[in-house]
Design goal:
Blueprint (H helix, E strand, L loop, with lengths): L1 H26 L3 E7 L2 E7 L1 H12 L14 H7 L8 E5 L2 E6 L2 E5 L4 E4 L6 H11 L10 H6 L12 H36 L4 H33 L2 H6 L2 H7 L17 H70 L11 H28 L3
Helix pairs in contact: 4-6, 6-7, 6-10, 7-10
């Protein structure tokens, strides 16, 4: 009896455990990852663990994964595949480069490129460019014949390895989206300035400026994050050497080698020039954003000054109207006091009644007309 009960209990535990494992399996969140290899791309649905194991098999091979220094980790894959807002960054790991420059999120190895699909990313153009880079090679190098066959404007005249070309392509696409964001906020600001030229009411212009502040702040923050990335890389030669996977293999066993200046002479000059160029481009975007912020502040100051001037004019007009009304009130009181017992021949005249009534109605209409002109002139 005890043995039978024990077996039934064990079966129930195993069945519940299998159901719980199956439910956990269903809860694993998968992401759309595009693998590019030898000119072809393959769309995969991968979890964080699957992506980590595949990347480690490509970058580390048969080496000891547990003791490898600088290898890609679970945390890296988790940050790459996260659905939340990502911090722009470019990092080097053993055998791979992680590019996180939203909307471009990719991992570059010697012969494979992995791209994380994003809604705001134009995948057609991006994937075609990466496929052209990896089309003729799986070893990570391009020769003269390949450079002649590849017809792409973004490829320079000198030889570069595939990782460098892929890194250039990823950063270029990210900066294209950044430039588009900068152009969008600049275009919206020009539309608001055009409202000022056609003399629209100031409240409409101020509402447009207020709604534009958040996009400008977000774009300026994004440009600043990109600028910090390239500034940190350009100012440290050792960091530049890490992004060339040929040198990266020599550093995986001794990460302190990048600090003693031995690899400073091994830095790829093309890679250094590439990062300097991107640093200058992002710096130009930062200047444009600072200029745009100053232009918005100047426009707000201009509108505030004009509103203050219009307010002063209205106060003067209000004072003048009060004085005139006081005079009319005083005159009406005097005429009422001294004219109550006086006889007037025009009391029985119809024409006099029509003239006086017309004058009174005209005096009521004219102030409304002048006030409307004043409001339109001062954009109130």
């Amino acid at each position: 009896m005890d043995v039978g009960r024990r077996n039934s209990t064990l079966q129930s535990i195993l069945s519940h455990g299998g159901q719980s494992a199956l439910s956990c399996n269903k809860k694993i969140h998968r992401h759309l990852v595009i693998e590019i290899y030898q000119g072809h791309f393959l769309m995969l649905e991968m979890s964080v663990g699957e992506m980590l194991s595949q990347l480690r098999s490509l970058t580390l091979g048969k080496s000891d994964i547990c003791n490898s220094i600088g290898a890609i980790s679970y945390r890296d894959c988790k940050l790459i595949l996260t659905d939340f807002k990502q911090i722009p960054n470019i990092e080097s790991r053993t055998g791979c480069i992680i590019v996180t420059m939203p909307p471009v999120v990719s991992i570059i190895t010697k012969d494979h490129i992995y791209v994380i699909a994003k809604e705001e990313l134009n995948l057609d153009n991006f994937l075609s460019r990466l496929c052209e880079i990896t089309k003729f090679t799986s070893t990570g190098s391009l020769n003269d014949t390949i450079l002649e066959n590849i017809e792409a404007n973004y490829l320079p005249d000198y030889d570069k390895n595939v990782t460098l070309l892929a890194l250039e392509c990823c950063i270029s696409v990210a900066l294209e989206h950044l430039k588009q964001d900068v152009n969008d906020v600049q275009r919206e600001f020009e539309e608001i300035k055009s409202r000022l030229r056609i003399k629209m009411p100031y409240n409409v212009i101020m509402d447009g400026l207020h709604s534009l502040k958040q996009p400008i702040g977000n774009t300026q923050e994004k440009v600043g994050a990109f600028a910090r990335i390239f500034c940190d890389i350009v100012n440290d030669t050792a960091d530049i050497a890490k992004f060339e996977l040929i040198n990266n293999d020599t550093l995986e066993t001794d990460p302190t080698m990048s600090l003693n200046g031995k690899c400073a002479s091994q830095v790829n000059r093309d890679l250094e020039i590439l990062f300097e160029y991107f640093d200058q481009e992002v710096a130009q975007y930062a200047i444009e954003m600072r200029t745009l912020v100053l232009a918005v502040q100047d426009l707000e100051s201009h509108i505030s000054i004009n509103l203050s001037f219009a307010r002063n004019q209205l106060l003067r007009l209000d004072l003048m109207c009060n004085v005139i009304c006081s005079g009319f009130t005083f005159g009406a009181c005097i005429s009422g006091i001294f004219g109550m017992n006086l006889k007037n021949a025009m009391e029985n005249s119809v024409s006099a009644f029509v003239v006086i009534t017309s004058v009174v109605v005209l005096c009521c209409i004219l102030p409304m007309f002048f006030i409307r002109i004043l409001f339109k002139r001062n954009r109130i």
